[in-house]
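--- STAGE predict ---
source: upstream dedup step, 1 unique chain passed
mode: sequence only
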Amino acid sequence: MKSVKYLFLAATLMALFAAPEASAKRKLLPKSYMFGFSASFRDSTVYFTDIQSVDSTWIETKGNMLLGRNVYSYQLKNYMNELGMPHRTCIVMFAEKRKDAEKKLMKLRHKYTGKAKNQYDVKVLTDKDFCFRPVSIDIIAPDEEIEAPQPKSHKRKK
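--- STAGE serialize ---
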């Protein structure tokens, strides 16, 4: 049994160190659409923001993930803290097209209004209440270069 554990550990370590580095490319979107959601386990009130257009957002092209999404969610979390509602979980969802963002918003709202009627108090934060601010790439990845990767040359050693 011990030998199986050691073999598994050795195989895992080899896979980690032998795996090639995955470099995801980053892309600047001139405009994207996002909305926020805030909920708490201590409270039955959930908050949705309106869909907002945000300029200059960065995404990873490999997984289509929003870079700096934690910064955007902390913007909403800090706003909720200012309102006197700490300990809330805040998420941000985005899309490149407004139509796709509306679909995501309706799907999430349906979970709190359609299936679970009268269990949650749903409130909407308008653009006048809360507005997302663009995040600089320096905050997201200060030490990383943004340039496109150069092709590797395959030279043989003699």
